[in-house]
UniProtKB/TrEMBL annotation:
Matching InterPro entries: EmrB-like, MFS, MFS_dom, MFS_trans_sf
Any one GO molecular function term: transmembrane transporter activity
Domain of life where this protein originates: Bacteria
Name the record gives this protein: MFS family major facilitator drug resistance transporter
Limits of the Major facilitator superfamily (MFS) profile domain: 13-461
Gene transcribed to yield this protein: yniG
Segments passing through the bilayer: 12-35, 47-66, 78-96, 108-126, 138-161, 167-186, 198-218, 224-246, 266-288, 300-321, 333-351, 357-374, 395-419, 439-457
Family listed: Belongs to the major facilitator superfamily. EmrB family.
Membrane-related topology note: Multi-pass membrane protein
Record's subcellular location: Cell membrane
One cellular component term from this protein's GO annotations in UniProt: plasma membrane
Signal peptide: none
Keywords: Cell membrane, Membrane, Transmembrane, Transmembrane helix, Transport
């Protein structure tokens, strides 16, 4: 297996499916830059505008658990074609929307398309890549969508400044066409399909659980905790979780095999992966808003500020995977987690006086930590499971990732909105104070993540 080469068709299939995830994240991060524009055009609040990101990630979190069922039931190429067509439909809806509600619908449809393509990419990697090169290829798979946050802000800034926000979506169409042609010519079927029944009750419970969870967090900044919008939403989420557990025990083919979380090391990896994704999306929300509102820069400048660091950090992701292949998971994951914590601490200490240069440099350091820890947590987490259970483990990790992203955006947006609308500060001062508290929240989570990975590697050999 060590001497086996990765075929060009496998690489092409990974790139084609990865482009779908890339387009989803590109639209997401480009719109983060456009949030102030949306707030003015649609006359909405900061807490409401973040639903453009949240709805996309929420739909992803509902669709991704179906990936195991889809993999067994349909051929890879059919799934790929469906994902491209759905995402393209969402792009068309969003680009032609003249109301905030229609724009949300477009993002939701895009989420369905990406929700099919993202697990498909990692399933192809796990199924068709030699074990000796799995870490590197998982890094490549992680890198493709990870490049989008680097390009997204600058892409969004230029497009909004020159042509308007609608072209964020229109310009994705040629990229989708390239992915479509590449996927049709490279995606192969290595496993047999079989008839399998979709666990509709489990899917319904997942939708209830995640909808309540994300809706509750999105209203924390504007509603009382005991209100229906917050406390009621969390209670609904709790009921959905109980229903999912009960439904999973009553079927032989549950959407999410939650019993895998009983494997302690796998659980720790999932939780660590979850936290890092939450922290990443929280910071991605803070930075462009800080640059535009506090530093008074245009959307285009805010994109240029974070681009160099984000691009270099994303390109380092396969290197992080190669380090895992060579040295094992302990060193890259721990070093990456420490780098994340340090960069966030420096951000927090400098918030009142953060220049654009400091924002860019610190973001590079932060994404360097992401490149060492993020993909490697997923790879090593799946290694804690039997090979036959790894696709089910992948569905769990992908689901947690999407929920974490939605939560990160929702929580941080709620915190900043709370201070912006408190009446104690003007809008700029509220953004500064909200960003500081948001960073404290992200620092606390990163410290917890570091303690988790230290516990799992304490007695492990590198």
């Amino acid at each position: 297996m060590k001497n086996e080469k990765i075929s060009m068709k496998v690489i092409g299939a990974i790139v084609a499916t990865g482009i779908m995830s890339f387009c989803g994240v590109l639209g997401e991060t480009a719109m983060n830059v456009a949030f102030p524009t949306f707030i003015q055009e649609f006359q909405i609040s900061t807490a409401l505008v973040q639903w453009l990101t949240t709805i996309y990630l929420l739909v992803l979190s509902i669709v991704v658990p179906i990936s195991g069922f889809l993999k067994h039931r349909f051929k890879n190429k059919i799934l790929f074609v469906a994902s491209v067509l759905l995402f393209t439909a969402g792009v068309i809806i969003a680009s032609w929307s003249h109301s905030f509600e229609l724009l949300l619908l477009g993002r939701a449809v895009q989420g369905i398309g990406t929700g099919i393509a993202l697990p498909l990419m990692f399933n192809i990697i796990m199924e068709q890549t030699p074990v000796s090169k799995l870490g590197m290829m998982m890094g490549v798979g992680t890198m493709i969508p990870a490049i989008a946050p680097a390009i997204g802000p600058i892409f969004g800034g230029i497009v909004i400044t020159q042509w308007g926000w609608r072209y964020i979506f229109i310009l994705l169409i040629p990229v989708l066409l390239i992915a479509f042609v590449l996927g049709l010519s490279t995606i192969e079927q290595k496993s047999e399909t079989r008839n399998e029944t979709l666990d509709l009750l489990g899917l319904f419970m997942i939708a209830i659980m995640f909808t309540g969870l994300i809706f509750g967090f999105s209203n924390v900044g504007s509603q009382s905790f005991i209100s229906l919008q917050v406390g009621g939403a969390f209670f609904l989420s709790f009921l959905g979780m109980l229903g999912l557990i009960i439904a999973s025990k009553r079927t032989e083919s549950p959407l999410l095999r939650l019993e895998l979380l009983k494997e302690h090391k796998f659980l720790i990896h999932v939780l660590s992966f979850f936290i890092i994704q939450l922290v990443l999306m929280g910071l991605v929300f803070i930075l462009p808003n800080y640059i535009q509102i506090v530093n008074g820069e245009s959307p285009q400048i805010s994109g240029f500020v974070v681009f160099p660091g984000a691009a270099l950090g994303a390109l380092m992701t396969p290197v992080g995977g190669k380090l895992l292949d060579k040295f094992g998971p302990k060193k890259p994951i721990l070093i990456g987690s420490i780098i994340l914590l340090i960069s966030l601490l420096v951000y927090w200490m400098l918030v009142p006086n953060l220049s654009n240069i400091l924002v860019g440099v610190l973001y590079f350091i932060f994404t360097l930590g992401i490149s060492l820890s993020f993909g490697n947590l997923m790879t090593n987490g799946l290694h804690q499971l039997r090979e036959t259970m790894q696709p089910d483990g992948n569905a769990i990790i992908m689901t947690f990732q999407q929920v974490a992203g939605a939560m990160g955006t929702a929580i941080v947006a709620s915190i900043i909105s709370l201070y912006q609308n408190s009446g104690e500060y003007d809008f700029v001062a509220g953004t500064i104070n909200g960003s500081q508290i948001g960073l404290v929240f992200l620092i606390a989570l990163t410290l917890i993540e570091l303690l988790l990975v230290l516990s799992v590697f304490r007695n492990a050999k590198s």
